[in-house]
Amino acid sequence: MPFIPRALTVAGSDSGGGAGIQADLKTFSALGVYGMSALTALTAQNTLGVQAVFEVAPEFVSAQIRSVVSDIGVDAVKTGMLATAETIRRVAADVRDLGLEKLVVDPVMVAKSGDRLLRRDAVDALTRELFPLAMVVTPNLHEASVLTGLHIEDRLGMEAAARRIKAFGPRFVIVKGGHLEGDPLDLCFDGETFTAFRSERVPTHHTHGTGCTFASAIAAGLARGLNVPEAVAQAKDYVTGAIREGLAIGGGHGPVHHFHHLYRLAGWRWA
User: Where is each Pyridoxamine kinase/Phosphomethylpyrimidine kinase domain found (predicted)?
Assistant: First the structure.
């Protein structure tokens, strides 16, 4: 049997299909990786916002992770919405016990609609328990500000935030600067060198799921054997294409199109 890379997402669900584990699994599949999931929370969610959240018990989150790893195996892991400090601590213990080295942490705190997805008392657990185990951490500007206490307005602010977050222990920090003016700029910091990843700004508000998709694309690259800069470059290109072909679904922020390149190869068109 041919080998297929395997990636696990530990995150919350999005009933609207644009973010969360739904976005993660679509991204894994689009990039040639077999995807698995451990649910941390269920959300009643659409393009307009999050209407309800049901948190999964930490011990059941752990049971899902261990079930997958013990049988199928995992080449890379991505975490997203973890919701509570108890779940974060349990996931961190599993990562340590199971030797899961290629860990991408997307520190999901707030949905694009503004709805909170991480309890306020869980931020400390995130930085103390999970960040030191991470190969890559991918905060956006808001998350970087919460994690560091800095007000970030430009590249110098992004660099300062990356340095502070690196002190929590991850091997690489990627501060996403998509909310700044000009073309989107993401900065990758390895403790010594900053690498800039730029792309075109696509004029659209159909960007639901970009953060989940970007982190999952990095995890997919790592699962396929790419190093971190290579995985980030691939993820940046993939997400830019998915935003460019974003879907006008629902009455709010529509989702990015995870299978945009496959649709074009197949000659499919949509309105």
Answer: 14-257
Q: How far apart are the first and last CA of the chain?
A: 40
Tell me how many domains the chain contains: 1
Asked if 127 is an active-site residue, the reply is: no
Q: Tell me, yes or no, if the pTM score tops 0.85.
A: yes
Q: Choose, from 176, 177, 178, 236, the residue flagged as catalytic.
A: 176
Q: Which domain holds residue 30?
A: 6-265
Instruction: Determine the length of the chain.
Output: 271
> pLDDT tens for residues 195-207?
999 888 888 888 8
* pLDDT tens sequence across 199-234: 888 888 888 999 999 999 999 999 999 999 999 999
Q: Does 271 fall in a domain? A: no
Respond yes or no: is residue 211 known to be catalytic: yes
Q: What is the CATH number of the domain that holds 209?
A: 3.40.1190.20
